[in-house]
Amino acid sequence: MASAARRRIAAPAAAAPLPALPDEILESIFLLLDDPADLARAASACTCFRRVATARPFLRRFGSLHGPPPLLGLLFGGPDGFRAADPPHRSAKDARALARAADFTFSFLPNHQQARRRRRRWRAAAAFDDLMVCDPLHRRCVRVPSVPNELVASIPPRDRNFVTPFLAPAAAAEDDNEPPAFSVIRTCQLGNNKVVAFFFGSGSGSWHAATPYMSLSTLPTGCIGFQRYYVRGCFHWMISSTSELVLDTREMKFSTISLPPIDGLPHRSIFERGEGRLGLIAFGDGGWPFRRICEIWQQNSGVVGTQDWQLYKTIPLPGYSDGMDIQGEDDSYFLLRPIQASDYIELLRPRQYFVLDLKTLLFEGIFSIDVGYRARFGHLYVSFPPPLAPPSI
């Protein structure tokens, strides 16, 4: 027995734990991953990796190196909720993960059923009531107070049906541990020649009025409705074929810019072209004459004026569309719905929606929607996929 015991091999000593890598080393490794989906998988490995990969300063560095966060889908108002990207789009898997993780029915809102009933019975008097700003992924909400009576008094009762509330892109927070500040804007068209706007900042917690805009000519009814475009701190609305109304969110004042006259391509929008210049996208709407192209214009010097624009590139439209209709936009993408006006068989088929990448100027299919669906302007959901996306409010 003793000899057998001596022949036993002694158990090896417990291995010493490996020293933890410093955060700086982990950040350098994670920056080598050029796909946000790979970064999300790495963040799911352990709490240490997730803490480093979800830090706001790191995500800013990742975005500046590898480009903006991916486009995951389209967010509609009301009961439609979120429409995720479909395969084979490169973001389809992350979009499904977002749809599972987030609550796009907003059931986490206080008095959810009462809020749904109020949406069905919209009243003009409620145009300036309090609002809720929501983060559906992290199920957070912040109440925005109603516009003070002294500001509402400047709006005639007959014009209070034309009030449009919307969010401005969030500004970077001074403290990286805190969510970014947000702003809510309410615009209103008064008659046919005046536009006003009210700003609410989450930092100040109060409403302020912008300098009103007075037009020397008649403005189209509803010209500052839901379809607007955000570029370099400014919101843009098309008010004619050769001009746009601009609201500067930093100085809180309106102005107008001139656009080049383009024949046969009535749908246009401004975007950020880079190097301090604006870009202009123009495409047809299916009307006569059919022009199955998309034109990209850009400024020469950054001074806005009709003579400052030049045609940069002409792109054929994808598929069999006779024109395009903008369904959503972001700093980096346009979501476009094809218009098949010349082929009645095509009208009966599901519509393939496309994304135009404003950096590469390439089209990519993202999802299809049945022909019976009533298309509306939506909001592109551009974000890092779960679990990378930090709280937005």
From TrEMBL:
SUPFAM superfamilies: F-box domain. Pfam families: F-box-like. Residues 21-62 form the F-box domain. Signal peptide: none annotated. Gene3D superfamilies: 1.20.1280.50. PANTHER family: F-BOX DOMAIN CONTAINING PROTEIN, EXPRESSED (PTHR31264:SF7), OS07G0554500 PROTEIN-RELATED (PTHR31264). This is F-box domain-containing protein. It comes from Urochloa decumbens. The lineage of its organism: Eukaryota, Viridiplantae, Streptophyta, Embryophyta, Tracheophyta.
